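Researcher: Structure prediction, please.
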Amino acid sequence: MHDLVEFRRIASFLYRRNKKYDKSLEISMADKMYKDCVDTALESNSAELVEELLRFFVKNQEKEFFTACLYTCY
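Model: Predicted structure follows.
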């Protein structure tokens, strides 16, 4: 992993563009870039990834992002 957050964010974006959604989510969750996580889950059209992200938000008590993810990915 790179030391600079913006380079990791670019890497996450490139993974998302190449349809490697699980790796993109992994990077974004580690950096607490939750909006990027929700956008990636939405773009993936994968119920499994959305459910994984929702469980992550519940586990970390991120109520606002849980709600935003539900609303966005519904």
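Model: Helices lie at 5-17, 21-30, 34-44, 47-59, 63-73.
Researcher: Thanks, that helps.
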